[in-house]
Amino acid sequence: MVFVFTAAIAHSQIGIRAGVNIATLNYDPDDFSDDVSSIIGLNIGLLMELPVTDRISLQPEIHFIQKGAKEEFDDFFGSGKITTTFNYLELAVMGKFNLLDIGNDGGLYLGLTPHLGYALSGETKFEENGFSDTEDIDFDEVSRIDFGIGFGAGATFGNFFLDIRYNLGLTNLNDSDFDLDINNRGLLIGVGYMF
Q1: Under the phi-then-psi rule, with left for phi > 0, alpha for psi from -120 to 50, and beta for the rest, what region is 103?
Q2: Within a domain: residue 38?
Q3: What is the distance between the alpha carbons of residues 126 and 27, in angstroms, rounded to a whole number?
């Protein structure tokens, strides 16, 4: 077992990844999600690819990732929007299956990525009729922990790669007494480089 792990480390590669997270929040009951739309968040991270076989590898990752959503509303004073943004530090391990390998020129892969995030900070921005106010999120009523799973695919081109993932948050972010489930969702598009 130690020999297999040592061999995987010897053939490992370290890389960087940057991209965007097209993030939204899912509400249940969905009465609350009629006017919810996506925000664009930043996603940057470090990763290490550890080959297990010729086709399978594990890819531990650490990311800074922004999640959240935007909600538009109409009231007595007019129309406005509320934008919620969370800043997470996230640990993930992608199980990577190489579908097609074209030697050093590139290849295609599929990935399954459980992830665990911790909200470092968050804010809610309220805008209506030229008025704007920003408040920090109260983490007494919102969970800092976000566990989920991601599904994705990617392509490699020499040392470069391009991938797309759909992240499904499984943790209810609502820690208040209000009966409402809120989960993160996100479509991540990224590019990276393996050293």
Answers
A1: left
A2: yes
A3: 19
User: DSSP code of 129?
Assistant: T
pLDDT tens track for 138-174: 999 999 999 999 999 999 999 999 999 999 999 999 9
Contacts of 30 (CB under 8 A, 6+ apart): none
Provide the 10 A C-beta neighbour count for residue 111. Answer: 19
List, in sequence order, the alpha helices (H) in 86-189.
Answer: none
Q: What are phi and psi of 32, to 5 degrees?
A: -85, -5
Q: Is residue 195 assigned to a domain? A: no
Determine the structural domain holding residue 121 and report its residue range.
Answer: 2-190
pTM exceeds 0.85 for this model: yes
Neighbours of 95 (CB within 10 A): 14
Strand partners, 39: 23
Peptide bond into 60 cis (omega under 30): no
